[in-house]
Amino acid sequence: MTRDLNAHAAKIGKQNNIATVILTIIVGLVLCLLAAIIVFIMAKGIGVMTSPGFLSNSPLDSENPGVSFEIFDSFYMLFWTLLFSVPISLGAAIFLVEYAPDNWVTSVAKTAIETLSSLPSIVVGMFGSLFFVIVLNFHVSILSGALALTMFNIPILVRTIQQALEDVPRSQRDASLAMGLTRWETTTKILMPAAMPAIVTGIVISAGRVFGEAAALIFTSGSAPARLNFASMNFASPTNPWNIFRPAETMAVHIWKLHTDPFAGTTAFNSSDAIAWGTAAMLVLCVLLFNLLARFLGKALAKKMTAE
Predict the structure, then answer these.
(1) What pLDDT tens digit does each residue of the chain (308 aa) get?
(2) C-alpha dihedral over 248, 254, 259, 263, to 10 degrees?
(3) Which helix (H) or strand (E) holds 102?
(4) How far apart are CA 217 and CA 144, in angstroms?
(5) What are phi and psi of 36, to 5 degrees?
(6) Core-most of 18, 254, 274, 296, by most CB within 10 Å?
(7) Considering the domain 50-306, what is its CATH architecture?
(8) Cβ(252)–Cβ(217) under 8 Å?
């Protein structure tokens, strides 16, 4: 039986066009939804965010409260979280990819990492409250919050770094080992530079995700309004901004608190609802900048290290 190749090609082309249209519509809907969310939040909060004093005043200012302390606490919490999570995640990923034997123990470890990465953040926060705050007696503090976020961030970073290392062609490993380099030298001098653009991109994107986390911090770092004194030299003081044993309120927690325990303002620009939208706009803007920074660093490092 002779098959009509022209009719078959026309049928396949038609199916391809239909699939392309459907997928384009789906992607368009996702982009429109994302754009709508961003535009709505920015439209509600941009006026408050750009109002005089909002980014520089204390949240305790009775006349014109701002979010300067919450912005500082958010970045300071992020700093400690990355300081804890990046070295651990990097070491775990290198071990799983290059050193761990292919047996049931490794399989269990990978499954545990996948499971931990899917845990709700509020569950991680409750565990952090029980273990870091009570058992280790770190109290409600920046340290407890950073450790809870570290638990939340490690599985994500391990998978990201692991994937980046696995994407390096096997031929580069084999060539390095054939030239007499040790496995550690191969990892540090061949694999890490090749995977660094993807690793840095993953770290920056995970930083954006951690930056907007709230549920885990409500139980660990607290939601009390910050009372910071940047002139203080007493590092044990609860008002010293660098004291990691003091409570801290990040921007995400501040938004949650304004909607659960609102306080009355004196003008349209410092009501609790207005402050919440202004803080949300600032938070969205920071997360967008994290993503743009990830793309820029990834491309810059890839160009520098691959000479492309």
Answers:
(1) 456 677 777 888 888 889 899 999 999 999 999 899 999 999 988 888 888 888 888 777 777 778 888 899 999 999 999 999 999 999 988 888 888 777 777 888 888 888 887 888 888 889 999 999 999 999 899 999 999 999 888 988 998 888 888 888 888 887 887 887 788 888 888 888 888 888 888 888 888 888 888 888 998 988 877 778 888 788 888 888 898 999 988 898 988 888 876 554 444 445 778 888 888 899 989 888 888 887 887 777 767 765 55
(2) 80
(3) none
(4) 8
(5) -65, -40
(6) 254
(7) Orthogonal Bundle (1.10)
(8) yes
Q: Pseudo-torsion of CA 116, 121, 126, 127, nearest 10°? A: 20
In the DSSP assignment, the letter for residue 214 is -
The domain locations on the chain are 50-306
Phi, psi of 133 (to 5 degrees): -75, -45
| Tokens, residue 94 | 């290198």
The sign one gets for the Cα dihedral 59, 215, 29, 199 is positive
